[in-house]
Amino acid sequence: GDHAMSTVLMSGKPVLPQKMVTHTWTNFFSHLVAAVVADALGSPEYEAIVDRLSPAEIGALEAELRYKRVLDKSYWICCFSVDQHASICDQVFPTDIDPVTGLFHPACQCSAPKQRDDMSPTRSGARSVMSEMNKFDDMM
Questions:
Q1: Rounded alpha-carbon distances, angstroms, from residue 42 to 21, 65, 72
Q2: What are phi and psi of 19, to 5 degrees?
Q3: Which pTM does this prediction carry?
Q4: Which letter does DSSP use for residue 94 in this model?
Q5: Which of 94, 130, 126 has the alpha carbon at shortest distance from 112?
Q6: Do residues 64 and 52 touch, judged by C-beta distance below 8 A?
Q7: Nearest CA to 4 among 78, 75, 81?
């Protein structure tokens, strides 16, 4: 794809987020989701939400979110809001190890043009204008 997941999910419509969430690739994805859901529900901890993400519990969790009228809360989540594919999909980093197999993730073989931090045009600090991955500090 040539878009961030958030752009695809929102059909290209810009949405101003109410909260900003970052993550680490070494964390479990379910913990990220549970943290966002816990925040939406006003809970200070996400641990109790993790089990509720199971197929047997997800319907009740969604019903609670709907009942509390928090399904429309918007979150900017970096792994969905930044098109990392356009920057690094063809690279494999030393930490890119599958936690199940213990093997390195394969590099993507697509022909999508890349936008790396050091590519022209650049702005102050020789940071690429086109890269989406070097704008985190600007957002903060």
A1: 15, 11, 14
A2: -140, 155
A3: 0.69
A4: T
A5: 130
A6: no
A7: 81
